Amino acid sequence: MENPASVEAGLARVVLAMAAHNGNASLFERYLAAMHKARSPEQFYILASSMAAFRDPQLVQRWLQMSVSEETRNQDAAGRIADVLSRYEVHQIAWQWVKEHWPEVEKKITMSSGAGIVGATRNFCDAESRDDVQKFFTEHKVASSERALRQVEENVNACISYRDHQQKNLTSWLGQHGGPVAAK
Questions:
Q1: Rounded Cα gap, residues 75 and 109, in angstroms
Q2: What is the pTM of this model?
Q3: What is the mean pLDDT of residues 53-66?
């Protein structure tokens, strides 16, 4: 962060996200300070995308709140929210936050960016979440997101099916190899 030119941008993106994955509030603050000092759009966006990798619920919610604040440009807000929603470790926290703050989120999305938020829920993998997403976005229409909503349902259904199939295989394998059988 102190010398961005010392590391290739693709590598910096990976390393910063990995550090954020286990990062605390102090690192979060350092990322924010570095974003404000970024000398190029590339540096700024590498740091911004890394912010989605923090897992501490308070930091996740803080980043989401910042994403709908005045300091975030409308064209960036939906991408930031979608980045967090698409992360398995925090997607339930992010999804609850989006629903609770929908009026703020809705004000920030543009005609073409809302579908990104809808589409980010495609990584959910249970029927309850699938149904909740479908219900929420049926009641809260997002422009140009009909296709994304259908794809979310397809992806979540495929994940549920795959998980159920693999659970049976894993249970069978563990039973055959003397390991503890996982409860479903």
A1: 7
A2: 0.89
A3: 98
What are the extents of the domains in the chain?
1-54, 57-184
Q: Which residues, in sequence order, are CB contacts of 30 under 8 Å at separation 6+?
A: 1
Concatenate the DSSP letters of all residues of the chain into one string. ---GGGS-HHHHHHHHHHHHHT--HHHHHHHHHHHHH-SSHHHHHHHHHHHTT---HHHHHHHHHHHTSTTS-HHHHHHHHHHHHT-TTTHHHHHHHHHHTHHHHHHH--TTTHHHHHHGGGG--SHHHHHHHHHHHHHS--TT-HHHHHHHHHHHHHHHHHHHHHHHHHHHHHHHTTPPPPP-
Please tell me the predicted confidence (pLDDT) of residue 45: 96
Task: Locate 181 and state its tokens.
Answer: 């059988």
**Residue 172 pLDDT greater than 90, yes or no:** no
pLDDT score, position 175: 86
Write the CATH number of the domain with boundaries 57-184: 1.25.50.20
31, 37, 43, 45: CA torsion to nearest 10: 60
